[in-house]
Amino acid sequence: MKLLVCIKHVPDTTTVVKLSEDGRGLDPSGVKWVISPYDEFALEQAIRLREDGPAEEIAVLCLGPPDAQVTLRQALAIGADRAVLIESEELAGRDASVRSRVIAAAIGAENPDLVLTGKLGVGTDEGETASRLSVLLDRPHAGQVTTFEISDGGFRAWRGIEGGTEIVEGALPAILSCDKGPRQPRYPSLKGIMQAKKKPLDVRTPADLGIDPSAPEWASKIEVLSLDLPPARSGCRLFDGTAEASARSLVQALRDEAKVI
Fold this sequence. Notes:
Layout: E1 2-6, E2 9-11, E3 18-19, E4 26-27, E5 33-35, H1 37-52, E6 57-64, H2 68-78, E7 82-87, H3 89-92, H4 96-110, E8 114-118, H5 129-137, E9 141-151, E10 154-161, E11 164-171, E12 174-178, H6 190-196, E13 201-204, H7 243-256
Parallel strand pairs: 1-6, 1-8, 6-7, 7-13, 8-12, 9-12
Antiparallel strand pairs: 2-5, 3-4, 9-10, 10-11
């Protein structure tokens, strides 16, 4: 059984980001790039499936710039067997409809039995990739899965819904997008880091997939005009005096200044 995990190359969520000069994206200078956190859950699910027996190979796939190789090497160090980078900063920066079609073309060339993604890629937070891949590849899909099992050529997946848990069943090949679950992502071991240097990382171009980024059909349907950072947080405010006096001052400030009551 062959597994493929889609990995997104994203800024570390603890990184303080700046806007680019044109105000339409992020300034990459000084930013640490990592695997999108929800993709880490997908990778952990894949590794557990291989450890339990059904899976024989785990490949990781990323659409991104050349330095996404570092992120893919991290996935190899965690436990993936090989990696594929579709190297195109241009296509990686386009909307979900374009990115999904590029990834679908790459998945078609790999033909895995099961594709795993995170429920969303942090940064854009669109959460569209897995469902779009399901339509493009005509495969069953279950989203926001916390855990799943494989048996008899199909899958059974558990996903959280309001007030309970939903169980979804389907046939393979399929696509599952993973949420946080009981299985926490593992860290790369020293042995894994050393082995990752020798594992295959295949770099492909859009042309290898028959894609011309300059062609009209690969243009984004959504254009980002501008981005704005959230306002800086103000410091805390202390109220002196007795508890009763402080409570009155707090209520007055909430009513007259913050206007929230």
